[in-house]
Amino acid sequence: MNKLEKPMKLIEPEYEEVKFTIPGEPKGKQRPRVVSKGGFARAYTPKETVNYENLVALSYQVQVGEKKIHGPIDATIIAYFSIPNSISNKKKEMLKTETIPHIKKPDIDNIVKAISDGCNKIAFDDDSQIYNLTASKYYSENPRVEVILKTQKET
Q1: How far out from the chain centre does Cα 3 lie?
Q2: Closest CA to 61 of 22, 6, 109, 91
Q3: I want to staple 137 with a disulfide (CB 3.0 to 4.6 A). Which of 1, 92, 98, 102 is the partner?
Q4: 72-128, pLDDT tens digit by residue?
Q5: Residue 22 and residue 147 in contact, taking contact as beta carbons nearer than 8 Å
Q6: May I ask the CATH class of domain 16-152?
Q7: How confident is the model over 43-82, as pLDDT tens digits?
Q8: pTM above 0.85, yes or no
C-alpha cells in the first residue's frame, strides 16, 4: 500500500440476539412411524416428538413473544441432561459443573432437529434459514435446553 491509499475499513455487521430456554429433559426427534390400514401406508410423527416440539414453540412464545426472525440465522443450542442417580458422589460433583459432555442418546442432531422443527413458523419461517449451527450436550442438576438465535440487524 502506498502513502496515498487509505486502509480499507471492515464494517462489522450488528446482530440481534434472541435467547430462550426449554425446561426439562432434552428430547430428540423420533423417526416417523408407518402404519398400514386398508392397504394404504400412512406415516405419522410420534406423540412424544409432537409434544416436545409444542413445548419448544410454547417456550419461545412465552419468553420471546411474537417476534419472528427474518434472514440468515446463526444458532447455538446447548442441551443439559439430568445427572444419573447411579453414579458416585465424587463424579456427581464433577457433573454439576455443567462442563462434562453428555455422550449418550439422544444424538445431538436429533435434538437440533426437534428444536428447529418446533421453532418453524414461530421463531422463523423455516429452519432452512439456519446457516450456522453450534450444538453441544452436557450434564446438569437443572435439565434444559438453551437456545440462542442471532441474525444481522436490518438497517
Answers
A1: 50
A2: 22
A3: 102
A4: 999 999 999 999 999 999 999 999 999 999 999 999 999 999 999 999 999 999 999
A5: yes
A6: alpha beta
A7: 989 999 999 999 999 999 999 999 999 999 999 999 999 9
A8: yes
Residue 78, strand partner residues: 136, 146
Detail the DSSP E strand segments found in the chain: 15-23, 33-37, 40-44, 73-82, 130-140, 144-152
Is the dihedral angle over the CA atoms 112, 115, 121, 125 positive or is it negative?
negative
Cell readout for 45 is 410423527
Place of cell 441474525: 151
- Return phi, psi of residue 61, to 5°: -65, -40
Pair 95, 139: CB distance under 8 Å: yes
Q: Which amino acid is at 119?
A: C
The three cell numbers locating residue 67: 417476534
